[in-house]
């Protein structure tokens, strides 16, 4: 069974942390471009399991390529 919760509001990061700490949660992967990784990921990181993985791609429209998808897929399959 899949839990399809949508978290919105002032306490959504704390709620996310609680949900990710529940038994049965699989591996957590954050996919972000370089800008998001620099600006937003530090705010999210404290709420993620210590064992999470960050997959970072280059920022910008010019990097929205199949080769970028292939690199993300490669990194995911190596986890």
The helix-and-strand class reads alpha+beta
- For the terminal residues, how far apart are their CA atoms? 23 Å
Low-confidence regions: none
Task: Please give the number of β-strands.
Answer: 2
- Can you tell me the overall shape? globular
Lateral strand order in the biggest sheet: 1-2
Largest sheet features: 2 strands, parallel
SSE pattern, N- to C-terminal: HEHHEH
Please state the CA-atom Rg, rounded to the nearest Å. 14 Å
Sheet-strand content, in percent, reads 5-15%
Helix content: 25-40%
Give the rounded overall mean pLDDT. 90
The total count of helices amounts to 4
Protein described:
The protein is an alpha+beta fold. The protein has helices at residues 12-20, 34-39, 41-44, 66-77, and strands at 29-33, 53-57. The chain has a two-stranded parallel ribbon with strand order 1-2. It is globular, with a radius of gyration of 14 Å. The model has no long low-confidence stretch (mean pLDDT 90).
């Amino acid at each position: 069974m899949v839990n399809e919760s949508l978290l919105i509001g002032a306490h959504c990061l704390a709620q996310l942390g609680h949900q990710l700490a529940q038994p049965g949660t699989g591996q957590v992967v954050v996919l972000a471009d370089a800008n998001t990784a620099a600006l937003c990921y530090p705010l999210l990181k404290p709420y993620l399991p210590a064992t999470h993985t960050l997959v970072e791609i280059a920022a910008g429209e010019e990097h929205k390529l199949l080769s970028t998808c292939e690199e993300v897929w490669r990194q995911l399959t190596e986890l």
